[in-house]
């Protein structure tokens, strides 16, 4: 029983990181109808930038977090303005290929600037152990769970009660009609890309703090994608919550079935889900697949 609880606890922690990245995928898709397959690479780049800023300022935790937020917003806006906005009106497949190419470019830039060596991100108290119900968890694991819950709550409030959130929902439903009603589609999409970038950046940063900072962080996008499909490509909150489910499921499979199956457990799960609910557990039935 204790072993199972340990698997569940650690699964919730890694699942929270998956959830943040999955929300990033869903946020972009909800506003633009486009999957950004450079999401993992973007999270990796933001983690490196924030680590460099923090190191230059004396390993300050606030500098690390502030650098991640600032760099993610700037990168998200720049990508939307100078790359993705040029793809408006182009075939969806072409736009998706642009994001794939963008991911390759980001990886190359990271390797050229920072190299491929593993780095340690030192954050005060992050490695401290907290004992809860007889189980040990690191502060960084608790922090990422809290951040995911906060992100889910803020997203709910944003989409349900804010005027801009309602405008984003309108654009997601029908961009042409929303534009005719006076909603700035380009502004909505810019905010969506910036928000998506922030979520991806937080996921990459928490992964770097909890494990290591290396170019392998880009695989976080691939490992988080099952949570997006499970929750629904257009369901931001559902995708975030599904990240925890995928994380726990992976840990249980790795702990009780076979460690090698842990890496593919999430993808096996979505194969089953897609056969039963092709639109995801929380997605809309009429969404268009890429």
From TrEMBL:
Topology class, membrane: Multi-pass membrane protein
Keyword field contains tRNA-binding: no
InterPro entries xrefs: ABC_transp_permease, BCAA_transport_permease
Subcellular location: Cell membrane
Transmembrane segments: 7-29, 49-79, 91-114, 139-159, 190-209, 229-248, 260-280
Family annotation (CDD domains): TM_PBP1_LivH_like
Primary location: membrane
Keyword field: Amino-acid transport, Cell membrane, Membrane, Transmembrane, Transmembrane helix, Transport
Superkingdom in the source lineage: Bacteria
Family, per entry: Belongs to the binding-protein-dependent transport system permease family. LivHM subfamily.
Protein's UniProt name: Branched-chain amino acid ABC transporter permease
């Amino acid at each position: 029983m204790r072993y199972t609880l340990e698997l569940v606890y650690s699964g919730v922690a890694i699942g929270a990181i998956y959830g943040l990245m999955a929300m990033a995928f869903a946020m972009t898709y909800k506003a633009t109808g486009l999957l950004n397959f450079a999401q993992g690479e973007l999270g990796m780049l933001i983690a490196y930038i924030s680590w460099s800023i923090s190191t230059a300022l004396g390993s300050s935790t606030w500098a690390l977090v502030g650098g991640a937020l600032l760099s993610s917003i700037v990168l998200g806006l720049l990508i939307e303005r100078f790359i993705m906005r040029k793809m408006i009106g182009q075939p969806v497949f072409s736009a998706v290929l642009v994001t794939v190419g963008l991911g390759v470019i980001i990886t190359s830039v990271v390797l050229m600037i920072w190299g491929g060596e593993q780095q340690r991100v030192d954050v005060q108290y992050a490695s401290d152990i907290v004992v809860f119900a007889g189980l040990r968890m690191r502060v960084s694991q608790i922090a990422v769970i809290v951040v995911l819950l906060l992100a889910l709550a803020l997203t709910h409030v944003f989409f349900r009660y804010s005027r801009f959130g309602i405008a984003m929902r309108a654009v997601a439903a029908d961009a042409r009609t929303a534009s005719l009603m006076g909603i700035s589609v380009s502004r909505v999409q810019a905010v969506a890309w910036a928000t998506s970038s922030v979520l991806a950046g937080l996921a990459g940063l928490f992964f770097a703090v909890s494990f290591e900072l290396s170019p392998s962080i880009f695989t976080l996008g691939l490992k988080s994608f099952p949570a997006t499909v499970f929750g629904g490509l257009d369901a931001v909150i559902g995708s975030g919550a599904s990240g925890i489910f995928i994380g726990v499921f992976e840990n249980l499979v790795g702990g009780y079935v076979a460690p090698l199956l842990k890496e593919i457990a999430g993808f096996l799960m979505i194969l089953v889900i897609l056969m039963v609910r092709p639109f995801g557990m929380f997605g809309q039935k009429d969404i268009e697949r890429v």
